[in-house]
Amino acid sequence: MSLGRLALARTLVKQPDARLARYGFAVAAALGACVLARAVVPWVAGHEIVVGAGALALAAAVDGAARARGRLAFLRAMTRALDEGVYTIDRAGRITWVNAAALRMLGYRAPELVGRPFREALRCRRTDAPCGGGARCRLQNVMLSGQPYRAENDMLTRKDGTCFPIRYSSAPILRGGSVVGAVVAFQDVTAERRAAANERFLAEATAQLARSIDDEETLARVARLALPRLGDWCMAIVLEEDGKPRRVAVEARDAGRAEAALEMLRRYPIDLEADHGAGRVLRTGEPELMPVVGDFVGSGGTTVATRAALLEAIGLRSFMAVPMRFGERLVGVLDFGVTGADRRFGAEDLALAIELANRCAIAVENARLHAQARDAVRARERVLAVVSHDLRNPLGAISIAAGVLRAAAPEGASGRRVRDAAAGIARSCDRMNRLVGDLADLARVDAGHVSIVRREVSARALASDAVEAAAAAAAEAGVGVACEVSDEAPRVDGDADRIQQVLGNLLSNAVKITPRGGRVWVRCRTRRGLAVFSVSDTGPGIALEQQRRIFEPFVRGAGARYQGTGLGLSIARAIVQAHGGRLWVVSRPGRGASFRFTLPLAGAPAIAAQRAAGGVACPSTPAWAAAGAGARSGPAPAPAGAALSARSR
User: Fold this and answer.
1) Does residue 231 contact residue 254 with C-beta atoms inside 8 Å?
2) How far lies 279's CA from each of 282, 287, 300, 511, 523, in Å?
3) What is the average pLDDT across 633-647?
């Protein structure tokens, strides 16, 4: 109670004028207040009188009214600050109050809504089911059940007749334990749903762009997808390497009725000096938006008359064009047009078109890079064809001549220099022939043309033949080489010549890397329906970081001490994979290396054998193979005292 109200009470109690006391009681009676307190004071004449009750009741009533006005002002300020629309209805469904946000969203003034039935004023409807009155109305059900309700599949109608989707929550209004109405708070979710739809559209466009690497096919598919979301027609233009524009796609919403317009669009001259359109965007690199097409023809450029005829043919009403950019480089432009009178492009359409153009630019750049790579591969294949055909003939002649020279050299010390020179020429020819063969094999591997002629062959025969072929080079290097495959070894399904190529490559590398006095050996065992070959050595081993790359073409170890191209392991891996097997290495620096590969056993399908291997891609080591080697990174057990360090291939 305020000081002023306390002073009034004291006055009513202390004044010796009985009229004041009577006035206090009269005010209290007029307000219908009950007696809140009693105070007994001596009267001048010695009588007692009950005073103060009316004054206290008046003060309480004034204070309660002030608090109610404060709460009402707070609620009004709070609802004015809300972005959500809020309105209330009574039991009869008439609107009793609307906040400012709701009026703004609906386009009404408060007197135009208050007192009207909400179904008539707001013309609400559901998007997922019919909406009726009575028990079928969810807002009426809130008042009938006394339970709150939330939903997000309703539509409200603005004063101008346009509709918008809402998300809302409603709750009953209680007074004295009875429901006297309901309150509804709603949000306009138009922007949210448009953003979700745009994301779905862009996701679908990205999927379409990823389906092909041909720019014309890809852009035509995306142009069709963009309609009618982004207009009635769409045209895609890309820039060639020389900077000249090339039209790659023209699509219309109704191609049957607009065939003439489509033909004009296909023949539309792309004038870089034009005031508007694709030419302007290609010239400036900036997007263009014309919600209402006015002077689209303009006066710039050399195709004014043609542009005028085009506009008359297609009936252009709204237009936008956006650049396709990859980084800072302009790769093309997308044009969109509206021919109907009921739609105009806006800023939201432009933003969506720009995002679509950015994704199209990536696809166009990918197509360009793919075309460049394809051309480079074709050029390389032509070079390799020339190398493999035109070089082998003169190399053969040189090798024969070296043999003749060596045979004709006189005996004794006088002919030694000639024989040594002839031997050097022959070795160089052999290296050149191997290089030409490796390059030709690499070209076939890259093209996927590794030919495999399968037949049953003995694992023992394959290993012993490879060891025999490497014996001479091993003896010259002072390295022991052995075949440790028993006669009971299984038969495998594969191309004997190709498998010999793999074993020969692995043995040649092992002999070259193993120091004099070391050993190299070949083994074969059976594991889960596969024949597992291994070529192991007591060489310096391979560092882990090198193991990840040595199977790539043209990659050799940093410490390689012998000549080579770095193609052998790559070709060997491709041959093994063509058989349905895997090639990997198990090694540690200083502990030698063991190159292992799998082949299907005779009678086992290659696909089944590949699945049995665990499907681990080379050069990773299959888990079962590592377990078979004692779960360690190292070769099979080598003879005692073998010296080991870093391997290079």
Assistant:
1) no
2) 5, 11, 11, 67, 70
3) 32
